[in-house]
Each structure stands twice: as C-alpha cells, then as structure tokens.
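3.2 Worked example (two chains)
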Amino acid sequence: MQGSVSILNVSPEAAAMIASGGRISTMDGTAGEIYAKSLAAGQEKNEKLIGKVLSSGHTSVLEHCYVNLSFENVSVLAEQFLIEFRLASFTVKSRRYVDFSKAGYVSPAFADDAQRVVFENTAASLFRTYDALEAAGIPKEDARFVLPYCFCSNFFCSMNARELVHVMNELTYGRGSRIPELRALGESLFAQCERQLPFLAVRKPEAYRQSDAFCPRQVQLLASKAPVTVLAAPQDAEGLICGAYQLARGYVPQPLTEPEQTALLKSLLAQPRKRELEQASYTLQFGGLSLAALTHLTRHRMQALCAPELLKTARYDRYVLPESVRQAGMEAQYREAFRLADEAAAQLRTAGAGEDVLSYLLLSGQTVPVLTTMNAGELYVFFRLRCCNRAQWEIRGVADEMLKLVLPLAPHIFAAAGPRCLTGPCPEGRMCCGKQAEVREKYAALKKEALPNG
C-alpha cells in the first residue's frame, strides 16, 4: 500500500493576503485599504510581488496564509518524521483506541524479491502477534508495541505557508530524501502547489542538501539505567522568575526575602498567563523511551527535542514490556516478535537492504535515549497532560519521574504541578477516571517524597 497527501484547504485569497503583507511596510494607507488594493491588483501582479519579496529573503509574509493537509495511509515512519515540525498542528488516528489489525502497511522499495519475501513474511507475522495479543485481552495501547513502523497512519496536519515550503523541501531534498516514501510525499506537495499555489512551489535543493557532520568519535550510544536525568537547570530558577515578574510590572528586579518570594510565586501560579515561567529552562535526558512514547513527547511543541537516528540506537533487545502482557501470559509471544524482527533485519542487511528498508521494520516498543530542553511553563503543561490517568502509562510514569526531579530544584514553582484535577474539577467529562481523591493522595505523597524537608 502506498500513501498520499492532499491539500484540503487554503486561506481565502491567499495571494492577495500574502501580497498585502509585502506591501504594508512601504505603502500608505490602512491595513484594510492595502488589502483592498491587493484584491484589485489581481493574481498575476500579486504573485509577481510575492516572488520579488521572497527573493529578498522576507519569507515571513508567507505566514499570513494557512494550509490544511490530509495524510492517508502513510507509514508511521512518515508520521514520526512529520510531527517533528514544531510549527505545524497534527491530529492523528490513535493507536490507543483504534484497532489497527486491518490497517495495512506501506511497502518500501525493495532491491529484489528475496528482500520483499523476508519483509512481507515478517510484517504478516507481527500483525498476527498484534491480533493474538488483542484476543488475549491486552489493551490496544500495549498490543501496538509489536507493530512495525511500516503500518499505516492517517492524520490531519495544518501549517502556515512558510512552514509548508520548509516541509516540502525537507521531504524532497533534506532529511526525508533518503526515504522514497517521504521524497514522494514532498514531490506530491510540490506538484499540488504548482497547480494551486505556484508562488509556494519554491524548490531549494542546495540549501537542504544533506551531509554528514564531523564526529570525532563514533561511539555506541547506550541507554541510561535512569529513566530520566536532569542534565542542566538554573541555579536559582525561582529568583530568576521573581525578577522577571517584577520587571514585567515595571519594577527594578531586586532580591526578595523567602516569604516575599513564596508569596509572589504563589500569586504568579494562580494567574492564567504565566509567561515568567518561560525564563527558566531544564535539560532532561530520557534513558530509553519507546518509539510510541517518543511520539507523545514530540507532540509537545514548546521544547528543543533531540532524538537520535533510530537505526543507530533502536536495538531489538531493548523494548518495553507492558504489565498487561505478563498478566495475560503472553510474554513469550511478545518477546518472540522482537526476536523475529531482529532476525529479519539481519537477513535484510545481509541482502544489502539500507535505511530506506530497515527503518520500516522498527517496532513501536523499541526504546531509544532522548534529550530535550523545556522551560518551566511548558513543563507545567506537560505535567498537566501527562500525569493524568488518561495519559498512556509509559509517558505518565516518565512524567512522574520528571516531577520528582524538578521539585527539589524549584519547590515553589512546581508546588502545584501535576494533573489538572489537583487544583480543580476534572476536565475530561465522561472520560474522567473517577479517582480524583486517589490522584490527589498520590501526588501529595510524591511531593512529600521529593521534598522530605519541605
């Protein structure tokens, strides 16, 4: 099966809107008057102006146009590649709730029939294991760990036109160019733009051409035994944030007494706008996240995420083993899926298969080390969503570990961090777990453990 991408919607009068952005800095008149002039100018003149503005490097005008895309039956490999673009929005068909036994998979470009037979037999076996796990009563969110990265995904994606130009070039000429499926998606988007939005079909092959960066030593990256480690944090995050709070209100930042600082932070945390929290950043290393959990982490846009090249770090003997699999007596079958994929990958590698084939045989349950930097404001958002009982259990466990680590570093900042039900009613409606009292007890104990003298 081969997937596709379609441009579903574009901002009305896109060329006139972008051209208006190009005109406003040098033309007299109100914004409304300039837009009216752009509408009257016509498509040809607007596109000519857009080309002139873009050739000068002023690409920000493209952000006035918005594009909605649909990706149908593309591989999860393609999905993971795309959701790393932080200026785009995604809504993905969930593997936690939807049965993927009949989803099908994307076939990479094989060098010969021998490679095809090994790959297809392995994919079929992995889907049968997925079916067997589900039949044994294992939740879909745990059964999906044995699915290979070739299985099909469907999602919507929206972005401004500037980001679309970046995505198309990255797919066609940049990191995605090594994978035929990704390169084809980029070419498809370029072709659609050439028909519908020719001023966006800006190809930049030289600017996106890939080359290997110099690395003085090539060392096998090993996963840390610790699930999460804080690599860097501000020495005085609370003082830094209090200084920002004072400055934002027109005062000269000055040191505060501990009671004053505590009162100020309490006041800040009670406000809907907590911009001052963004002044303090934390760099965290995850010892080993499953590829499925990596997807959950990647979807947080306000972070600097650094994930390794998967083929170099995702080993088949490192994977998550859900408790539900143990309880159902399916551990042997589950482990066999990873052994089988490992054996097939070795056969394909011996047969000359490269990254463009082997990447599709990675399993969702394999783990990789990951590095990210988040500011305190984004950490609050992360804890609010990922500490909730509705969050997937692996990412929820990671979130709890993160909270334990940052609490001692800034106890007043993270005093109220955790799921949303800690400070108000559950927002999940009918999906509420109904265990608010237990959740509050859990996080009270967690914070007491992290701050034994607090």
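3.2.1 Second chain
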Amino acid sequence: MIRVLFVCLGNICRSPLAEAVFRHKVQQLHLDHQIEADSAGTGGWHIGNPPHQGTRKILKQNQISFEGIVARQVSSKDLEDFDYIIAMDASNIENLKKVTK
C-alpha cells in the first residue's frame, strides 16, 4: 500500500481538499486497494473539525466526497508511516522539519 499525506497549517482547507480530490482520482482509476490518502495540519487549532465550509462547498459542487475527513495534527509517526508527504506551501515544509526534531 502506498500512503500519501497532504499537510497544511490547520487541516481544514487546503490539505483536506487535496486529500478528497486525490482519493476521488484514485477511486476513478480503481487504485484504492493500492493507494491510501490522508491529511493533517502542522497546527492543532482545528483538531476534530470537519473541512472548512468553503472547502466542503467546492467538493460538493464537484461531487467529491469528504466523508470521514476530520482535522488532525501531524505527528512524528506520520513521517515514518507515509511514503509521500506533500506540504501545501514552504512554511508547511519548515513546520514539518520541526516535527522531526
């Protein structure tokens, strides 16, 4: 199983949007038994919350499910468990480097 993690600051806008779209594409290609996606935030302000209202609106407009996506904070274990970690911007990369320390 290939595991992909999308990371942004709060895990309610960009990374859950990327996770949902990526999952949708993986399912369309019938690769969901080979590729798994998740998302997390470098900050913990929104832990347990669903994606932002604007994110949900975009996903609904495009008929993409966001079922089961709730905000969580990235952990050092994630850095070990995921094959690919995709940060949404340069500051997220810098924050991810701090998780490894």
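3.3 Remarks
Helices lie at 14-28, 53-61, 76-81, 90-99.
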